[in-house]
TrEMBL record:
Highest taxon, organism lineage: Eukaryota
Entry-linked Gene3D superfamilies: NAD(P)-binding Rossmann-like Domain, UDP-galactose 4-epimerase, domain 1
UniProt key word Ribonucleoprotein: no
Cited CDD domains: Gne_like_SDR_e (cd05238)
InterPro entries for this protein: Epimerase_deHydtase, NAD(P)-bd_dom_sf
Species, as recorded: Talaromyces stipitatus (strain ATCC 10500 / CBS 375.48 / QM 6759 / NRRL 1006)
Domain spans labelled NAD-dependent epimerase/dehydratase: 3-204
Keywords: Carbohydrate metabolism, NADP
Keyword check for NADP: yes
UniProt xrefs under Pfam families: Epimerase
Signal peptide residues on this chain, from the entry's feature table: none
Protein name: Nucleoside-diphosphate-sugar epimerase, putative
Amino acid sequence: MNILITGAAGFIGQLLATELLNDPAYKLVLVDIVDPPIQSGVKYPQNAKIIKTDLVADNLETLVHESAPDAVYAFHGIMSSGSEANFELGMKANVDATRALLEALRKKAPPGVRFIYSSSQAVYGQPLPKTVTDEVIPTPESSYGAAKLICEALVNEYTRRGFIMGFTLRFPTISVRPGKPTAAASSFLSGMIREPLNGQEAIIPLEDRSFESWLCSPRTLVRNLIFTLSLPGDCVPPHIRQINVPGICVTIQDMMDALEKVGGKDKLGLLKEKEDPVIKRIVYSWPTRFDNSQAIGLGFQRDESFEQAVRDFKESVES
């Protein structure tokens, strides 16, 4: 299977590519505005082709024609805090790039090419019920969420018209992410685990340990991303392609407790709570609980506990 991954230099792109490059059935084209890396130790690095390109400025029709994808994962974009700080860049990277990619697929890919779009719980905004169901209308309170909702509508329309077979996956916050902090407002939800386990100080930009987040581990996310390759095209209506990916509800205190269990009590001393009003405004607009009946019924998986996500990260650091 030929797979095109945009935003392949990012965390999720690298994570998925690493998993797919351990299976000889997949040949990848890894695309980003910087050279996407291929992780050392994968079994079939020769099955990946790296392309550095700007999705808005460059000729995507040639890229699509030459890569001949059976499926596309769209991970490109600027994250929440970055989109809020720079409106024009956020719209270009999140909306214009997605429209350009969809147009190239419409013109140069076989009709119905599978298109898996990474959306976010940020499409929702207050007021919200305690538990978000599929019937809740998205009303984003951030530029990032608004851009994601615009792109969701594009995926619906291009699927309804038969240009693509689109699936929009609304991700929970992914934790624990390896690497450096990102421009996401939710970045601290990985940093408060990652940094202490690496012996570094971390700032929690909230002073409310009861604050709840809807989280998913990297391992479970990758399983769900690969599972989407086999989803029947008619499992959701042709004009309603969005699926809320399963997560678990975790408080700041829950996360601190998991850090202590896995890393030891001394790691809590590396956490500093210092409220940031900008971050607080963004993250408090997001939902914290979802009814994932649809996704679970389709075969998507959820984590058993956040403690296991912390253990997964600790093992990856030590390996």
